[in-house]
Amino acid sequence: MYTHNKQVITAGTPAVNASKAIILLHGRGASAEDIISLANHLQLGNDTAIFAPQANEYSWYPFSFMAPVAKNQPALDSALDVIGQLVADIQAQGIPAERIYFAGFSQGACLTLEYVTRNATRYGGVIAFTGGLIGEELAIENYKGDFGGTPVFIGTGDPDPHVPVSRVNESVAILEKMHANVLLKVYKGRPHTIGADEVTQANQHVLA
Amino acid sequence: METTLKGIHHITAIAGDAKKNYDFYTRILGLRLVKKTVNFDDPNTYHFYYGDENGTPGTILTFFPWGSGISKGRRGTHQATEIGYAVPVGSLEFWQKRFEENNVIYNKPAEKFGQKYLTFLDPDGLKLELVETNEDKRAPWETSEVKAENATRGFHHITITTEKAEPTAYILTKVFGYKLQQQEVNRFRYVTDAVDTANIVDLVEVPGEAAGLTAGGSVHHVAFRVSDEATLMQYREKIVALGLHITEKIDRNYFYSLYFREPGGVLFEIATDNPGFATDETVAELGTGLKLPAQYEAYRGEIEKVLPKLD
After folding, report:
1. Cβ-Cβ contacts under 8 Å, A185 against chain B
2. Boundaries of each Phospholipase/carboxylesterase/thioesterase domain copy (chain A) (predicted)?
């Protein structure tokens, strides 16, 4: 079993000079470089610091996000901890939570949702390209805070080979209850990828 | 050059089944389909525009019908939650009977700000209202079943539900030129006198209410109207000066747009009157053909195959 070192690739404007930041979380088998290329498609403006942490083993946790959480430990807790440290670093450089954005694909989307829901506050916004909250069953006792209207976009395929729509709906219900402003879009028959429309929805709903 | 913002341009909402949406708005509500195109970012989904004969700004309701399998939205804060249409005084009886006959969910008429209104839901649960007024002189679109004496005139108001009215009110008053006209309990009515119609925004303040879920049957964004692109860009500067993020100018083929999220959480658009809908069809033909943006014309055959049939 493995844990993560904090290895973070940066792009965009250096955080000390930036007015906002985005944390990009890659999917299973991918890399920080891959997900950083997604930033070119997002309307970030030229005042954004971009951070993409790299998972050890190219994977944030070893099993499905719907496996019992214990099977995904210690990798999962370690991954959440890496994001927490990164958020603290960004805040230390003068960018408050309400100007920090998150975006992830697949496993990175699950981890994104899990992190923000465990640490809910008014963030800049959250983009989950195919993902849901993590666990065999959702441990709602872990979810704390208030999103205060944070815009969240979740796009998912139906059916998706990795992420069932039922789990996405369950996750949305929890985020909403914690006052997130969620836009959910389900794409019939779309393969496990990020579609052009999802990028547009993310740009309009979260980054506009 | 006109430099003022002129009320609502269009409202865009999300629907499920395309045919149900088309039937409801064209037949039951009696609107004209003024443009049938596709979502420019997702060409296998329609984009419908319903309005008056010409698709005049202030009458246009647009939909992305995402398909029958989509999740249902829920009204809440950070959302535009009610779309009000103006209808002539005395027509609510006709509409009530029509909704009854067509199994449309509706409430018995009520009154706000001295005007009688009828609330009803579209097939996806989108909340609409017909508001009685004789002040609205816009020419109605008539159908065989909905004649001028009952027909909608275009938008009367849009309602935004919010935890706190003040941040949204700031944009409406300081940037858009609206003024607070009246208040009833937690409903604040803002009106601009730059135009006579489609000029009302109601802010409903409900502290502690959950945020809405934007999916089927909910409003995606509200577009406000300016005359031309020069005015559009003046508004861009005003929004930037407030420290809010706003997109670059986007060509929507029938208008030019900017998008930004107002501080109350609703996606606002500012859209131009030019060039309008009669650019790729004549006024007489509006809504009859499937209009594709140039980049998709080469794929017309494939796109037509996957789009749901409407008749």
Report:
1. 66, 70, 215
2. 14-206
